[in-house]
Amino acid sequence: MRFSRIPFLAVLVSAALLADASHAADLKLPRPSQKAQVMQTVGLTDVTINYSRPGVKGRTIWGELVPYDKVWRTGANEATDITFSTDVKVNGQPLAAGTYSLHTIPTKSDWTVIFNKKADQWGSYSYDQKEDALRIQVKTQPHEMTEWMEFSLPNIAVDNATVALDWEKLRIAFDIQVETVEHALASARAAMASLAADDYNTAFRCAAFAFQNNVAPDEARQWIDKSISIKETWLNLRTKADMLAKDGKTAEAIQFGEKAIAVGKAAGDTPAEEIAKIEKQVAEWKKAKKS
Question: Are 151 and 165 a contacting pair, CB within 8 Å?
Fold first, then answer.
């Protein structure tokens, strides 16, 4: 009896594939375009970008490898995604907290930057415009040569930042704005509403924040008084003095300033330079009071 070799080989191949399938999940190979992440806190908002970094590798990028006028994944492999931990504004346009796939439509001048509600997609192949949460227009900028595509946040402030994408000799950038003071003030009010009986430090921090940011002045005065009533420190006394001076109550400011100096010196661990700053400020108030 003769056996056909082809069915026998087919059985061997099938068996090998079945055997390897159980180990496929363990197979790890390097990607030509490596994964990367950039995370930056802006005020109280975490901004996180996950992407893969393609290289130039001597190729013509714009208009060839990355075609003009077509939706691009803004990287390699999976579509780039960006996460905001709070509501933000992007170039002045509101965008809710969440994770978005970040697509772009490159052109020779203006680009369209797209925040799409469907994250976790491979490339832009399943991109659906109906899922767009926001589209903005940005202008390209010349930039020093960048071999591997890179996202960064080159400019950061307490309530805004710039997100930049650099690749080859081109940069695109957009601004994000966050409501840091509003979020922080809400947090301060919540903390004061549940303040422990001996927690002078939280009351001081809430008062100092409001005072330094010129918000809720009446609450700031109440909070600093609460802190002082629990425990007098050179910090809360000095802040109280600054508040009084700002309100034009120089004589009272001097009294609290001098008390801050005395309490600070008595504590024994107050930095000498801080005591010197208060002494200088009190001297200036006294001079202004005489004139």
Answer: yes
Cross-strand partners of 49 = 38, 82
Dihedral of alpha carbons 224, 228, 233, 238, sign = positive
CA–CA dist 28, 195 (Å, integer): 52
Residue position matching structure tokens 């409501």: 179
Look up residue 85 and give its DSSP letter.
S
Query: What predicted TM-score, i.e. pTM, was given to this entire model?
Result: 0.77
pLDDT digits (tens, 9 = 90+) for 223-264: 999 999 999 999 999 999 999 999 999 999 999 999 999 999
What domains, with CATH codes, occur in the chain? Answer: 30-177 (no CATH), 180-290 (1.25.40.10)
Please, are residues 236 and 207 in contact by the beta-carbon 8 Å criterion?
yes
Spatial separation of the C-alpha atoms in residues 125 and 190, rounded to whole Å: 45
For residue 86 the two structure tokens come to: 């709070």
Q: State the pairing for strand pair 34-42/45-53.
A: antiparallel
